[in-house]
Amino acid sequence: MPANLVVGAQWGDEGKAKVIDYLSKDTDIIVRYQGGANAGHTVVVGGKKYIFHLVPSGIIYDNTTCVIGNGVVLDPEYFLKECADLETHGFRVKDKVLISDSCHILLPYHRLIDEAREAGSSPERKIGTTKKGIGMCYADKMLRNGVRAGDLLDKENLKRKLNHILEVKNQELVKYYDLEPVNPNEMYDFLLDFADKMGKNIINTVYYLNSELEKGKRVLLEGAQGTGLDIDFGTYPYVTSSNPTTGGALAGSGVSFRYLKDVIGITKAYATRVGEGPFPSEILGEAGDVLRKLGGEYGSTTGRPRRCGWFDVQMIKHAVTVNGINSLVLTKIDVLSHYETIPVVVGYEYKGKKLDFFPSQGLEDVKPLFAEYKGWKDDISGINSFAKLPPLCQSYIKSLQELVNTKIGIVSTGPDRDHTIIMD
Ligand code: IMP
Predict the structure, then answer these.
(1) What is the CATH number of domain 3-100+202-264?
(2) Is the pTM above the cut of 0.90?
(3) Cβ < 6 Å from ligand 1: which residues?
(4) CATH superfamily of the domain spanning 266-422
C-alpha cells in the first residue's frame, strides 16, 4: 500500500493538522519526519481544540500507530508533557507511539543556546526562532556530537558517549555563550528517566515502516513547518533547520520512495509567516492587523502574532515544483469573506524585469505584481459542498487552481472536521 505525504506549501501554519486529522481515519500509521517541538498543529474535534507539538496529530484516532521518525529532534521534557496532557484528555498515547532509534534527542542546553543566540543577535541577524533549541540540536547531529534515542537503550554506552559529548559541549557553553556547564551525571539521570518511561517504544522504525508498507498498511507522512522554511528551498537564513519538503520526508522516515503516492500540499487562501524574513505579499500596518484578527493568526507554539499577506502564486508554484505536489488543500477560505476585493500576488519583478520563479536569493528586493479578484462578501463558514459556495468564491478557487496549475482537491471552510469540501 502507498505512503501519502502532507506538506506545507507556505511558511508553516497552513492548517496541515486538520488535513492530517481528516486523512487519519483511513490511515494505519502516521509519521512525523522532521522538526520538533517548534511545531504547533491544531486540531478541532467537536468544538474542542487540541494542539500538538511533537506527537503526530493523528494520535487521536484509536486505529492509528504514530511514529517519531529519525529526522525529528525529540525533546523529552516537551514530549512527556504532551503525552501526559493528551492522556488526561482520554487519548491513548504511550502505547501507540514508536520512536526511531536514530532520532536525535534535544537536550535542555540546546534550548539555552538557542535563546542566547537569539538574544545576542543584531536585528539583521535575528531569525525569530521559537527558542525550542531546534537548530542547535540539528547542528550537533551534523557535527556528529548528538545523543540518539537508540543510545538510551545501552546504559554503559550512554554514559561513555555523554562524557565525550559534554566535554566538547561544556567548553562551548562556558567559553562562547557564558552559560553554566552541564553536569554529566545529572544529564545521564535525566536521560535514564526518559529511557525508563519510553525505552520500550524506541525501535528501528525504518525497518518497521517499510515492512508494514510491504504488508499493505497505509502510511501518512506528516510534515511540520513548510516549504518556505525549508533549510534548502526556503528563504535562507530565515528558515528552520530541517527539510519539511518531500526529500526530507523520505530522509526523515526511511520510507522508500517506491511507496510514495500522493504529495498533498497545504496552503491557506492567503499567507502568513512567523519570525523574520522576506515576505513579498505581506500586508503591513492596520490592514495586516485586520486579516490577523479575522484569521486568528497567532502562533500556537509561541503565541506570537503572525505576519499576514495575500496568496502568492509564485510561492505555491515553487512548493509544487520542489515537493512534486499533485493535489492542494486550500484552507481558511472563510476568512476572506470579509473582503470587497481580494488581491493575489501573480508574479514578481526584480530589478525592472519579470521573474518567472521564486528566487533563492534577493526575495526581499522583488516587487510583487498583483491581480484583484472580486470578493463574495457572504459568510461561508462550515459550508461543505462546492455547489453551495457563492459563485464568486467558486471562481476565486478556480482561478487559484489555474494560476498554480495544480488541482485543488480539498477546501476547508472552518476549523472543525466537518467544515470541509471534497472537490473530487
Ligand atoms: P526554529 O524552527 O525554532 O529554529 O525557528 C526558525 C524559523 O521557523 C522562525 O521564523 C520560526 O518562527 C519558524 N517556525 C518554526 N516552526 C514553525 C511552525 O511550526 N510554524 C510557523 N513557523 C515556524
Answers:
(1) 3.40.440.10
(2) yes
(3) 11-13, 38-40, 127-130, 132, 134-135, 224-225, 229, 238, 240-241, 274-275
(4) Adenylosuccinate Synthetase, subunit A, domain 3 (3.90.170.10)
